[in-house]
Amino acid sequence: MGELADRFELPTHVLRHWESMGLLAPERDAAGRRRYREDDAYRVAAIVSSKAAGMSLDQIRSLLDSGADDRRQILTDHLADLSDRMAEMERSRHLTEHALECRAHDVANCPNFRSHVADLVAGTRRGLHPARHPAHDPGQPLRPRA
């Protein structure tokens, strides 16, 4: 167990937790010790990669279950979530680029930023999720202050 955990830089208790959730099922020797094989290492790689992509352990369990009926829907939903997160990160990148060039050292005092969030401040919109607010084009940076 320690060798596999080290290979993926994981504490051993994580592998035990994944086993308790049905994500891993290592063979056992006569003394009951876990014996991880190459297939187990590939499963751990799939779990680690999927977690890094933002999937929950429940989603990953369905992804690794060849008989799961909801696999396609889970993946479709996850793609939509990734698109939302990528748009939010793009918006954050543009805001950071704007802040670097903005003469207002406090971006909250920048007129361009204020115009961008005026509806949020006024209470006519909730959240800063660009995917839900088509008026915001995350591909366009905020205008630098003149």
Give structural notes.
The structure is a single chain. The chain has 146 residues and is an all-alpha fold. The chain folds into two domains: 2-64, Multidrug-efflux Transporter Regulator, Chain: A, Domain 2 (Orthogonal Bundle); 91-132, no CATH class. 55% of the residues lie in helices and 3% in strands. It contains six helices and two strands; from the N terminus they run ααββαααα. It has helices spanning 2-7, 12-20, 38-52, 57-64, 71-101, 111-122; strands at residues 27-28, 34-35. It has a two-stranded antiparallel ribbon with strand order 1-2. A hairpin with a 5-residue loop joins strand 1 (27-28) and strand 2 (34-35). The model is unreliable at 130-146 (pLDDT under 50).
Short account of what is shown:
By secondary structure, the chain is mostly helical. The protein is built from 6 helices and 2 strands, in the order ααββαααα.
Helix-strand layout with pairing:
Layout: H1 2-7, H2 12-20, E1 27-28, E2 34-35, H3 38-52, H4 57-64, H5 71-101, H6 111-122
Antiparallel strand pairs: 1-2
Give the tags.
146 residues; mainly alpha; Multidrug-efflux Transporter Regulator, Chain: A, Domain 2; 2 domains; 6 helices; elongated; disordered C terminus
